[in-house]
Structures are given as structure tokens and as C-alpha cells.
């Protein structure tokens, strides 16, 4: 009479090796993702560093200069990337909205106001080495030797927004533009994504600069709203940055309406839908996405270090 205690399954050595390899792959991928995200966090720290005391010294000196020779005083407000918290140290300009309502220039044309700004600033900074002053249709730009750029944009404040120099006729004031409406929408999308969209915009801007893809800051911010408005993916910096690059390859092919009313589209500089310029930008983004996918396959942290200048 015999008894049986049952049989126990013993996995084959090949299955054991396969399981060990799966664990090893998961561990390597986890380490790679962690290192890549840590790198992006460090990059953001550098982007966020801003010598505010130095900037305020520059700003106050410019304000004193343009106040000379007029009645009343100008009020200043931050615009652009500073207002929207997408400023990048060393990359972004500091846009200053110079409100002329309560000065003797309130009835002047935009060109006359810009001429006043330029002449007064040149006189005030004539003995400062390395400063460059240029005037365009919309603003006067002051570039300092340390890389700081301040743009002074004359504005007339209204109850519902601002008037600036018209993009179609710089000799006239524009219709009312509403930068706050765009900032509110960006804040809404950012909050819906755990505050990660603004950091991703900064990383995207830095990556575009590093890769030689010519997109304006406002265009990048508008793309982020389209990309993340209904986003359901992962929340790591690397995942979101790759997703934004991938989604933008299609979004850049079509114009994006300007929410502020300043112009018809935020990206008119790229021409009409499916223009040559738009397809060139799309191809550049596609190549970048392909490189990201290869870096992920090879778990190549070195590629991320190359993109963000941390070699």
C-alpha cells in the first residue's frame, strides 16, 4: 500500500532566469526614471533662481530715467513670463508694463512714448559699460552684460485690460488686450494637474532653446494649455515633458487663437496652418520625441544631461 503526499511544481531554470531578468529590468527602469526626474528637478531649481534685488535695482533706475522730463509718474506691472510664473533665469526677458495714464504722455502716440523711453534711458545709462538699448514697435529692450533683459512696454490701463501699441499700426494704440484672461486659464489648467504644468512649461522652453527649436514663450504656454487641458497621464516631470513634446508635434501645425485679444493668433510668426515653418517645427519636435524614446529604451540618463546642459 502506498501513499502520495502530492507533487510540488518546480520551475525550470529558464523561467527563474526570466523572472530574475524581469525584476532586474523593473529595478533598472525605476532607477533610471528616478534619476531622470531628479535631474529635471535640479534643472528647475536653476531655472527658478532669480536675483530679484539686482532686477529691482535695474527696474528702479529705469523708472527714474523715464520719469525725467514729464509730469506725473509711471506705474509698473510685471507682464509676460514673470506674471505667469513661467520665467526662466537666463532665458526669459522681464516684461514690464509701463502704465502712462497719470502722466503728461497719456495723450501721446505709442511711437512718441517709445522715443521718450529710449532717449531717457540712453541718457541715464550712457556711462554704464556693456548695456545695449534697442527700440521696436512695441517696447524698448535694455540688455545688461550679466544677461538680464528688461522690456518696457508702454500701456494705457482701462477698466477691463490694457491698450498697447497696435501690432498692425504701431503709431496707434491697440484695442483692449486682456493678459489676465490668459493667466487665469493657465492657472486653471496648472491647478487641475497638481501644479505640474508651469514647471513643464519651463522645462519645455529650456529644451526648445537647447535643441534650437524657435518657439516664442507665449506660444509654448498656449501649447501647454491645449496639451494638458484634459490630460489623464502620469504626473512625473519626465512623463509630462515627453507627452507635451509628442502632442505638440501636431498642435504646432495649426494656429492657436490669442485669448488676450492682442492678435488673432499667438503663433502668427509661423504663418498659416500647415505652413512650411510649421512643418519644420513639427519635424524638429518629432526627431526630439524619437530621441526621447530611444533614451527611455536604453535608459540613457546621459541624453537627458546633454539636453539640459549638465554634462
What would your notes on this structure say?
With 311 residues, the protein is an alpha+beta fold. It folds into 2 domains: 126 residues, 2-Layer Sandwich (Beta Polymerase, domain 2), CATH 3.30.460; 127 residues, no CATH class. 51% of the residues lie in helices and 10% in strands. It contains 10 helices and 6 strands. β4 and β5 form a beta hairpin. The protein is elongated. The model has no long low-confidence stretch (mean pLDDT 87).
Q: What's the arrangement of secondary structure elements?
A:
Elements: H1 13-48, H2 52-67, E1 75-79, H3 80-84, E2 94-99, H4 110-124, E3 132-135, E4 140-143, E5 149-157, E6 162-163, H5 179-192, H6 197-211, H7 217-228, H8 237-251, H9 276-298, H10 301-307
Parallel strand pairs: 2-5
Antiparallel strand pairs: 1-2, 3-4, 4-5, 5-6
According to DSSP, the number of beta strands is 6
**Percentage of β-strand residues:** 5-15%
Mean pLDDT: 87
Task: Supply the number of structural domains.
Answer: 2
SS-based class: alpha+beta
Number of helices: 10
In N-to-C order, the SSE pattern is HHEHEHEEEEHHHHHH
**Helix content percent band:** 40-55%
Low-confidence stretches: none
Radius of gyration based on Cα positions: 26 Å
Any descriptors?
10% strand, alpha+beta, 2 domains, Beta Polymerase, domain 2, 6-stranded mixed sheet, 311 residues
TL;DR of this structure?
A hairpin with a 4-residue loop joins β5 (149-157) and β6 (162-163). With 311 residues, the chain is α+β, with helices and mostly antiparallel strands.
Amino acid at each position: 500500500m502506498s501513499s502520495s503526499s502530492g507533487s510540488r511544481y518546480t520551475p525550470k531554470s529558464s523561467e527563474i532566469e526570466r523572472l530574475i531578468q524581469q525584476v532586474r529590468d523593473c529595478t533598472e527602469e525605476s532607477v533610471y526614471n528616478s534619476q531622470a526626474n531628479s535631474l529635471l528637478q535640479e534643472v528647475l531649481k536653476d531655472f527658478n533662481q532669480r536675483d530679484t534685488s539686482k532686477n529691482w535695482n535695474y527696474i528702479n533706475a529705469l523708472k527714474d530715467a523715464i520719469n525725467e522730463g514729464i509730469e506725473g509718474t509711471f506705474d509698473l506691472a510685471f507682464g509676460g513670463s514673470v506674471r505667469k510664473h513661467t520665467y526662466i533665469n537666463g532665458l526669459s526677458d522681464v516684461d514690464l508694463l509701463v502704465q502712462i495714464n497719470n502722466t503728461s504722455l497719456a495723450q501721446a502716440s505709442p511711437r512718441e512714448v517709445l522715443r521718450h523711453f529710449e532717449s531717457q534711458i540712453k541718457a541715464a545709462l550712457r556711462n554704464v559699460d556693456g548695456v545695449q538699448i534697442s527700440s521696436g514697435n512695441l517696447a524698448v529692450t535694455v540688455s545688461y552684460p550679466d544677461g538680464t533683459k528688461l522690456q518696457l512696454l508702454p500701456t494705457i490701463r482701462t477698466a477691463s485690460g490694457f491698450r498697447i501699441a497696435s501690432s498692425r499700426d504701431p503709431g496707434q494704440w491697440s484695442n483692449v488686450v486682456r493678459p489676465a484672461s490668459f493667466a487665469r486659464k493657465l492657472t486653471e489648467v496648472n491647478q487641475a494637474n497638481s501644479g505640474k504644468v508651469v514647471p513643464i512649461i519651463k522645462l519645455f522652453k529650456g529644451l526648445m532653446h537647447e535643441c534650437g527649436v524657435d518657439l516664442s514663450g507665449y506660444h509654448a504656454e498656449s501649447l501647454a494649455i491645449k496639451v494638458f487641458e484634459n490630460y489623464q497621464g502620469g504626473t512625473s516631470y519626465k512623463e509630462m515633458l515627453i507627452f507635451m513634446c509628442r502632442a505638440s508635434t501636431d498642435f504646432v501645425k495649426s494656429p492657436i487663437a490669442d485669448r488676450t485679444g492682442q492678435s488673432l493668433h499667438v503663433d502668427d510668426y509661423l504663418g498659416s496652418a500647415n505652413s512650411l515653418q510649421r512643418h519644420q517645427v513639427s519635424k524638429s519636435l518629432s526627431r526630439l520625441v524619437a530621441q526621447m524614446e530611444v533614451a527611455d529604451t536604453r535608459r540613457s540618463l546621459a541624453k537627458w544631461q546633454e539636453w539640459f546642459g549638465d554634462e
